[in-house]
Design brief:
Number of helices: 8
Structural class: mainly alpha
Largest sheet: none
CATH class of the largest domain: Mainly Alpha
Radius of gyration: 17 Å
Order of helices and strands: HHHHHHHH
Distance between the termini: 28 Å
Shape: globular
Low-confidence stretches: 140-169
Strand content: under 5%
Number of strands: 0
CATH architecture of the largest domain: Alpha Horseshoe
CATH topology of the largest domain: Serine Threonine Protein Phosphatase 5, Tetratricopeptide repeat
Mean pLDDT: 76
Helix content: over 70%
Length: 169
């Protein structure tokens, strides 16, 4: 409940009021479920998201990397939480100018997603393309971005996919 309220404040209210709720939610999760429980890791990831929303990307990156390390230990498959965390770490790395590391984490996330995750796949391909546009030849970036549409359609077997989804970041 605290976690949900804190996320609501993150999205709509004063961010500084969300921090104590998020931290209390995380404390309760740790006490009840332990450090490695998926709900604890979700609460920790939400705290990182909140820190990012507050402009503290360094702290957000530290927390997302902690979540990534914990989720990689679980080894469960498919691990959608791990895929989400890889994307979050990749976005932090992109902000830090670490584009190759970001690309590597995005590629790992692609491997974890099920074929019906068209919106997530589109987001990852879009972020890969923007990384490549920053560091590589524009032709390669266009190929990756264009691959977003083709990959989503073929993996999801859904010819009705909206190509505009590739622009979702």
């Amino acid at each position: 409940m605290l976690n949900n309220l804190a996320m609501l404040l993150r999205d709509n209210g004063p961010l500084n009021e969300a921090v104590p709720m998020m931290e209390e939610s995380l404390k309760i999760r740790r006490e009840l479920e332990g450090e490695m429980h998926p709900e604890t890791l979700l609460a920790l990831s939400n705290l990182a998201s909140l820190r990012g929303a507050m402009g503290d990307w360094k702290q957000a990156g530290r927390i997302f990397r902690q979540v990534l390390a914990e989720r990689q230990k679980t080894g469960e498959r498919p691990n959608l939480g791990l895929a989400d965390t890889l994307v979050n770490v990749a976005l932090i790395e992109k902000l830090e100018g670490r584009f190759l590391d970001s690309l590597a984490h995005l590629a790992q996330a692609l491997e974890l997603l099920p074929p019906d995750s068209t919106r997530s796949l589109a987001t990852i391909h879009n972020n890969m393309a923007t990384n490549l546009m920053t560091i590589g030849p524009p032709k390669e970036a266009r190929t990756t971005s264009g691959g977003c549409i083709g990959t989503n359609r073929s993996r999801a077997s859904n010819e009705g996919s909206n190509p505009a989804e590739c622009g979702v970041a």
